[in-house]
Structure formats: structure tokens, C-alpha cells
Specification:
Rossmann fold; single chain
């Protein structure tokens, strides 16, 4: 695994969650699909969690040109001691494909045993994240997740998604209490993608310029 992360200026979207099953993979796949539909070349990875390939296969189905998961590096289950090195290697290898955008899912929650916090605490990795998407199960989790990312890691949340945004009441509460946009990845993937691309400063290619 690499010691330094080299993304060569490729913008990275990090998808984090307040816990497992908070909608991270759905958000990652929605972004991959929406970016791809706009003509962008997308690669995707999963840097933490347990050895299940279904999430990364879903990203491939959504249109990711190349995917990587920590098991591809010989890691069965991640932990804080190895997670940053895994993330650096995955990002470096995905960036070598020269995509327009990398979508990186961090499995488990911001507070957990699989090393998400260690990745967020790594200055070099944080510097790669042009936008951080937070998936949360409810408004309270969204409120706590936004504060935790900002206060402990110095990471601003670009947008909140997940079950907390499944209805109008939850969306209104999240936006009112966090001052962060709340967009449901399942029902409004195009709007979610637009906000993230704007945060990254990435414009879709002019028609005809995208690779076939």
C-alpha cells in the first residue's frame, strides 16, 4: 500500500454515514449514475467495512468505470490502524485511471470500529475530499453528524441525505437545525449530483467531448 496519496487533482466525493445502513451506498450509486449520465468519467471505491462486494458491484452497475474495495488490497475487515493506508491506495489507483470524479464510500459510521474516524483525521486524505456527503437515518443523527464532522475533524458537510430526508418534515428539520442542504438520493439524484458538482467545481463536459 502507498505511503502518500496522489490524486493528481481529480476531485473526490467522500460519502460517510452516521451508522451502518444509513443510505451511504444508495447515495454513492446515485452520484455515480447521475455523474455518468452527464458524460463524466467516474471511478468509485469503498475504503472501510467488512468483506461484502455487493456495494462495489452496485457502483459498477451504476456506471463506475473502475472500482476498488479494501479486499482487493488483501484486507478482510478494516480497522483504524490500516484504514488510512487503504484509503490512500484506493484513491491513488482510482486517480491513475484519469477519471473526472472519484466517489469514495466510507463504510460504517463516523464513529465506529472500522477506521472511518482515522481516515477523516488524516490531513492528506481530508485535503483530497472536495465534498463530503453525510447519510443519516434521522434528523438527530444528521445534526450530530454535521457537528461531529466539523468540530472533531474540521470537515464541512456539503449535503445531508439518507432516510432523514425521506419525507418533507425530516428534510425541513435537517436544514433548519444544521444549515446544510438536505436532498434525498433516491428521489432527487439529479439535484444531489448538481449540488455536489457545484461544490467540487466540476462542470459536465460539452456534448461530444465525453468518452464513448
Amino acid at each position: 500500500m502507498v505511503e502518500a496519496v496522489e490524486v493528481g487533482g481529480v476531485p473526490v466525493v467522500a460519502v460517510v454515514g452516521t451508522c451502518m445502513n444509513a443510505g451511504k451506498t444508495q447515495a454513492a450509486c446515485a452520484l455515480v449514475q447521475a455523474f455518468t449520465h452527464r458524460g463524466l468519467r467516474v471511478t468509485a471505491g469503498k475504503a472501510t467495512g467488512v468483506s461484502l462486494r455487493r456495494d462495489i458491484l452496485a457502483m459498477e452497475d451504476a456506471g463506475a468505470r473502475r472500482t476498488l474495495i479494501f479486499t482487493d488490497l488483501g484486507v478482510v475487515t478494516t480497522k483504524a490502524e490500516v484504514a488510512p493506508a487503504v484509503a490512500r491506495t484506493i484513491l491513488t489507483r482510482l486517480a491513475a485511471e484519469q477519471p473526472d470524479v472519484i466517489v469514495l464510500e466510507l463504510g460504517d459510521g463516523v464513529l465506529g470500529l472500522y477506521g472511518v474516524d482515522a481516515i477523516l483525521a488524516d490531513p492528506a486524505l481530508r485535503a483530497c475530499f472536495g465534498a463530503v456527503v453525510l447519510a443519516a437515518n434521522d434528523p438527530v443523527a444528521a445534526w450530530g453528524g454535521v457537528r461531529l464532522l466539523a468540530e472533531r475533524f474540521g470537515v464541512p458537510t456539503a449535503v445531508v441525505t439518507g432516510p432523514a430526508t425521506d419525507n418533507v418534515a425530516g428534510t425541513v428539520l435537517v436544514e433548519r437545525e444544521t444549515s446544510v442542504a438536505a436532498i434525498n438520493a433516491r428521489t432527487e439524484p439529479a439535484r444531489l449530483a448538481s449540488l455536489v458538482l457545484d461544490r467540487l467545481g466540476v462542470a459536465p463536459p460539452v456534448r461530444g467531448e465525453a468518452d464513448a
